[in-house]
Amino acid sequence: MKIVEQIKLPIKKEMELFEGKFKESMTSKVPLINRVTHFIVRRKGKQMRPMFVFLVAKMVSDGNFSERTYRGASLIELIHTGSLVHDDVVDDSNRRRGFFSLNALWKNKIAVLFGDFLFSKSLLLSIDNDDFDLLKLISIALKEMTEGELLQIEKARKLDITEDIYFEIIRQKTATLIAACTGIGAASIGANKEEIDRMRQFGEYIGIAFQIKDDLFDYTEDKIGKPTGIDIKEQKMTLPLIHTLNNCSAKHKKWIINSVKNHNTDKKRVKEVIAFVKENGGIEYTNTKMKEYQKNAFDILKSYPDSPYKESLSTLVNYVIDRKI
Fold first, then answer.
1. Which pLDDT score is estimated for 145?
2. Are 46 and 6 in contact (CB under 8 A)?
3. What is the pLDDT of residue 225?
4. In whole angstroms, what is the distance from residue 325 CA to residue 323 CA?
5. Residue 265, pLDDT score
6. How many domains in the chain?
7. What pLDDT, on a 0 to 100 scale, did the predictor assign at position 84?
8. Residue 190 sits in a domain of what CATH number?
9. What is the residue range of 89's domain?
């Protein structure tokens, strides 16, 4: 059995029901929107975010569940899908999960408007059901995701990212949405503020570990769906590079910065930078930091009694850093 299917087992029925509810949350009287929706639904990914919502809701409530939990998961998926559609436009990307991206098939104008449509549907889904607490959690995430992307763009111009800034960027860009999943999972079944905050922190730790793993893929030789060195080509300063820059001679630092700024499309030069990072402990250090965040997440899980939901969440935390893609 595939690891993702194993994780889903305790919430298999809920995940199957969710698919219909999520599709329903995107319906419109405009035929073009429904055609695009059909395209999006058929190409869904692993659906890790709804899994986080459902598993956390079940774990903190001892197996209880409500319609609010389904709405919370739909809310997350609407925001996540809308942000991916907009990302493909911003990045001028023609591929998503091995298929043509929405903007490649329907052009940028329709892609941007469809992303806006998904955001508006998420607002209405919350407001129509008085889920203002869930709306607040996802609104915080959406604000921080945007801030993280803009902070990364700003810092890429000067290549002056410190380790602290790097962690702030990935906390906002990636971890905040996972934190919203786990926070909404708890809030959807009526958990108190302390527990919601604890679950948000749990999700944030997982999200940071997830992004660090993603950044490590830039230095792997395995086939993972994106070319090695793509972050360097895009002048993204990730942790392996930041650590190496902070721990090498002034001469080597100047060479790396010059390589990233002025020679990032030179495949040979990019390979030399990757080799230098590997030789100077950038990968080992990054792995160590990733495992620290994994441990922080496990420390929070320890406070909950054993259950199939806790076990699946543990497997999911391990999967985040053991995955090959």
1. 92
2. no
3. 47
4. 6
5. 83
6. 1
7. 83
8. 1.10.600.10
9. 3-322
Amino acid identity, residue 19? E
Instruction: Identify the H or E element spanning 16.
Output: helix 12-25
If we measure between CA atoms, which residue out of 43, 36, 23 comes closest to residue 107?
36
The residue with tokens 């990019």 is 270
Low-confidence ranges of the chain (pLDDT < 70): 1, 44-45, 94-100, 221-229, 325
Interior CA angle at 173 toward 270 and 257, to 5°?
Answer: 25
Q: Which amino acid is at 226?
A: K
**Which amino acid is located at 5 in the chain?**
E
pLDDT at 154: 83
With H, G, I as helix, E, B as strand and everything else as coil, classify residue 162: coil
Q: Which two structure tokens, joined as six digits, stand for 145? A: 């995701």
Residues 293, 301: Cα–Cα separation, whole Å: 13
Neighbours of 122 (CB within 10 A): 27
Q: Could you tell me if 207 and 174 are in contact, meaning their C-beta atoms sit under 8 angstroms apart?
A: yes
Q: Burial of 164 by CB count in 10 Å (0-12 exposed, 13-18 middle, 19+ buried)?
A: exposed
- The model's pTM is 0.89
Return the closest-CA partner of residue 179 out of 223, 220, 148, 219: 148
- Provide the sign of the torsion angle of the four alpha carbons 186, 190, 196, 198, taken in this order: negative
